[in-house]
Task: inverse folding
């Protein structure tokens, strides 16, 4: 018998039954980053004025992907989301881009996966738009930074 | 005017026109990893016998997500794929899981994004199945490792 | 700072947080039309007997699309729908087709966008099925005609 | 006027309005089977040790498809699901595979279609993975075996 | 090492590489049936005049689902389809409905799964529209009846 | 027998068989508009500086929707697209927004529906982002303006 919630006693992958969990307001935040060459970052920052579409495109892709989480992650529960925000900040120190997502719902299960999915697809979209000028980029440091609501209460990384 | 292929002269995000590119056989490989606590890794490795469903589930999620790349990444071109393979290996050294994806097509544009999307969603699926026992996991080191076909020829990281 | 609900103070597109809104029964209705040549309309009306599949196909496409609204409109909230009806009426006066959609839910946000999406895709489906005989068709007059439920109460165009 | 719930008085297909139905816990179970040659079954059972990926793949496909039911079945209501389980058992007596699905929700309408869709896509996935060695397979005996919750109470086949 | 094409030498599920296969015109046909009570069949046949929307709705759902095959069946290749036809015939002898699908493409792999998926979802849609009047229906006899194109040539059940 | 290409001789909706059509480069352009109050237009134009996210969001939604055309329009053929561009221009004369889409492919069938779908969803996205300040907006004048490639040659509205 497994101690892993997503495997049953026969080792079979399953969606956990959340039907008995209380319906509460829940939130989760996640972060990630795209590392790139300083020249690539400079190009985007130059391109930001006046239109900013690299970052805006990636933020939007992250928001839309968060809504598709249950279709992408096999054992995730489909649930309505009351808010999704994805914010991308260029960072000279990396150099690269910091990506932050915040997701809220009122439901029976948490939304960490939705926040992580938003971050991941935003990073992939940045990568897609910049890959013609920078082959060596890397996506990383994707993790949950805060979570609230549900039986386990609030949690902060 | 931008030097970025995905912005037009007005800074507007656009799908690059690949209509004039030759139809060639193309391949791409990408990698990534999920870092977790040694206890989490041990649980999965124990659970692997006899069924292996954590890893099998995440590999399959990666394959299926690679096929949805053009729906997830706003400026990606929809294209038929002739092969998608996602392989996950537990690694005591990390500790965690190494994820590798290989994608092939015959078409007018490369498949790096499909390989990266397969890796990313496989990592997220591992995260989802293990998050109940390990809150501090981190996804990272996602990058393209090889690419072949198309005007720019072969490339290896 | 913007007065537009879908932009944050930095001008970034966002999903509005509806988490504090009351859960109420909500409904919305929308209309639209496809203008075509009188001969095109006559062909459909003749084809209606005995099977009616042009109109039935477009109505069904509208219903199915209404359920995909949150996947299509970037900042729309995913929400369960309790009813979707799309009705198409041939109209000799236009000449063309009148399309009407009615959507109901019990939730935290309105369903105008679902009704409008149902109307739009129904119009596009009519266009698709008739474009081989009529190149000059036009879709128009798509608007919300009624809305009820939620903080702002009922509204009629 | 039709006695069929999914046709209105004009014979038009429609989503039934479930807005007045009580929100209750609901469950449904469905079964089905894939009939194949005894040699095909033997190959899978041999392949099961040590990895079992034919069955695991089909079970997972069933779970994921159940979550897409409202996108596939035109007049189905989109609704959150609290649990989906798909279990496949090789059966020498058929010979073939027995597929069983159980779906739970808390909502205004039943989940028979979600259970049936999970069974159907699991059967199709088995078929896909085995068709290179067995052209004559057949999918059948797909039906609802149990249902609970809602106005009509519990029901068992 | 497995003799199953969809498992690699380690037993891992994989998409078969079709990149070396010739691009040929391919077709596949599949059938299936929904068994119901004679009264249910009579209701549909009565309802058919004048609108026929139960059958038209299910046929259309089958066509649309065939186009989603690669998203539903994990190891199926995404490929453009040049034709999809789904035809449903009421049959007093069963009693019930016969469902037939025919799919065509020009590509590197066959379209049996597309035909089978079209049949399956058409059957499920009939079930959905009739389940309020008939709880004991059963879907069955789903199989491939003909296949042409590709290395293995034509085949007929 | 119907003269409509999308109905067979029995009046049944069908996907036209394009398997015999030549593979050629094809393009289509479509336009549409959103009419709004002058104050609404002014708000967007003010908000455009410096970020422009209302228009960028709607353009991107149009591009992404064009790629989903075959999933939305029941009898459309799925096909790879080599380019999609959606451009939105504020227009004081309307007052409102002009939407223009251009789609290219190399395939067996035209891409008018993809261009029209891009325009329609871009209009709906503008509507969604502005509906909180303007209830009386109207979407209209959606039509094909140019088409090239294929048996019927070039065409301009």
Result:
């Amino acid at each position: 018998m497994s101690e892993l919630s997503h495997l049953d006693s026969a080792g079979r992958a399953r969606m956990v039954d959340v039907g008995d969990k209380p319906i509460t307001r829940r939130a989760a935040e996640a972060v990630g980053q795209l590392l790139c060459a300083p020249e690539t970052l400079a190009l985007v920052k130059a391109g930001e004025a006046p239109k900013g579409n690299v970052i805006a495109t990636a933020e939007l892709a992250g928001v839309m992907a968060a809504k598709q989480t249950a279709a992408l992650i096999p054992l995730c529960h489909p649930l309505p989301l009351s808010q999704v925000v994805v914010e991308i900040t260029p960072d000279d120190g990396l150099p690269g881009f910091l990506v932050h997502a915040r997701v809220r719902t009122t439901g029976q299960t948490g939304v960490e996966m939705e926040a992580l999915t938003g971050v991941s697809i935003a990073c992939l979209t940045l990568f897609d738009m910049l890959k013609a000028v920078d082959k060596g980029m890397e996506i990383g440091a994707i993790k949950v930074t805060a979570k609230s609501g549900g039986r386990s209460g609030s949690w902060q990384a």
In short: The two ends of chain E are 30 Å apart (CA to CA). The beta strands of chain E are 24-35, 83-91, 96-107, 138-148, 155-156.
